[in-house]
Amino acid sequence: MTSQRPGHAARPVSSACAEDEQETVALAADWADISLGLRKDLGQQAHAQWIKPIRLGGFCAETGTLELHLPTEFSADWVQRKFHDRLALAWKIARSEVRHLKITAQPGRRQTHELQISVAPHGGADQPVVPLRAGDAPAESFTAAASLDPTLTFAAFVTGEANVLACNAAQRMAAPEPPQFAPLYLKAATGQGKTHLLHAIGHAFLQTHPRARIFYCSAERFMIEFVQALKAQQTLEFKSRLRSFDLLLVDDIQFIIGKASAQEELLYTIDALLAEGKRLVFAADRAPQALDGVEPRLLSRLSMGLVADMQAADIDLRRAILESKLTRFAPLSVPDDVIDYLARTITRNIRELVGGLNKLIAYAQLTGQEVSLQLADEQLSDILSANRRRITIDEIQRTVCQFYRIDRTEMASKRRARAVVRPRQVAMYLAKVLTPRSYPEIGRKFGGRDHSTVIHAVRLIEELRVRDADMDGDVRSLLRQLES
Fold first, then answer.
1. Under CATH, domain 393-483 is a member of which superfamily?
2. Are 1-109 and 313-388 in the same CATH fold?
3. CA–CA gap between residue 149 and residue 322 (Å, rounded)
4. Residue 20 pLDDT grade (very low, low, confident, very high; cuts 50, 70, 90)
5. Shortest CA distance to 273 belongs to which of 200, 184, 202, 194?
6. Sorting pLDDT into bands at 50, 70 and 90, what band is 363?
7. Where are the domains positioned within the chain?
8. How many CB atoms lie within 10 A of CB 32?
9. Above 90 in pLDDT, residue 402?
């Protein structure tokens, strides 16, 4: 599941029961590897529900005890019972000094008779949001508590052509004035930012409505809570409390498929909240109409407001996201060619892209090495190989010819007409950017041209992209086609 890195076990551990800065970074790097391995073993849904919320606590080198914190006592108890042995084994493999795990709720979490979220007096978006549990009800009846990640705010969300509609709609949903559409439905593939927007809506809404009651959960969590309420014969209490919220945020709504009783309760909840002017936001990896096994009445409620589609991030957005993360690592320098390489290669989702950058920088900090293309290739080989789609020069030539409406034979012809030369130069440029082929190899694929001709074409297109908006637009369009 995880592998021990060279020289890893030899790293000294502090003798006191406290973390120094280097140890914190080392533990974080280990946890990144362990979490990735667990995601492969457990699956995306179980990982997102139970493993992803885990935060590292203190490490005592004398006893070999590492603390793991979860947002609520319920989730801590569940992880302790279901995943303790698996987590303990993973840590033993990654770092032999960790001999014991202590899994608890995040310090400072407490129970209250109100189910709501409170923020610090200043109400800043970066302040931790403390989730509070339902009051006198037993733990089995209603334990889902809103838990907003303090790092997932609108300020930290990087927008581009692929996600600007969804971001703008999310901001309108959190604005002081009533939304023009309800509910809001965010549709995006895994790792493209829909969960980030859900948390950001919660933070922004609390800034303008400090005493607001918010419920954030996954659809699976919603179903678990509903079933527990049924077993405890507390469905009326469940319904009453659920409908008392001012903002309902439900993630991964596709996982409510096939649960008739939970679907019915969600339907009634949507109707009740909308009738009172409350705000609702749902997120899923597919459009409402593509949800199989969902009652037609519920489908109509989910799609009656605004369905905001978040497309896969293009290379410019991926690069902007990476650059936005670099401020956290100053004064560590990450060369532009490394950022460009990661943005061009890790294309499956944003979460994996940022995770790759974090892993690369953590390794560089721990070993004292400079971040370079070679280091990226060595340390991110698994991520890169999983993402790397082999784009061929033949594919590039075919796509360029279709785009410019010229015959494929013109790529290797000797014609010097501008209508032929420019597309040929664009294809050479793309071949150099998107493939590992050398200049001579590229030249041979274009009718046996000399490598100097390819170099000239690459430099010319680079210059044209800077001063000619039409050319830059053409290249961007072709890049999107080839990388999709």
1. DnaA protein, C-terminal DNA-binding domain (1.10.1750.10)
2. no
3. 20
4. low
5. 184
6. confident
7. 1-109, 117-310, 313-388, 393-483
8. 16
9. yes
77, burial (CB in 10 Å: exposed 0-12, middle 13-18, buried 19+): middle
Mean pLDDT over 5-14 rounds to 38
Predicted confidence (pLDDT) per residue in 128-155, tens digit:
333 333 333 333 222 333 468 888 899 9
Looking at every residue in the chain, the average pLDDT score rounds to 80
Encoding tokens for residue 466?
A: 């800077």
Q: Which CATH superfamily is domain 117-310 in?
A: P-loop containing nucleotide triphosphate hydrolases (3.40.50.300)
**pLDDT of 67-92, one tens digit each?**
999 988 878 888 888 888 888 878 88
Closest to 142 (Cα-Cα) out of 112, 119, 118, 183: 112
Amino acid at 333: S
Task: Note the CATH architecture for domain 1-109.
Answer: 2-Layer Sandwich (3.30)
Contacts of 437 (CB under 8 A, 6+ apart): 393, 431, 445
Q: How many Cβ atoms from other residues are within 10 Å of residue 108's Cβ?
A: 8
Q: Provide the CATH topology of domain 313-388.
A: Helicase, Ruva Protein; domain 3 (1.10.8)
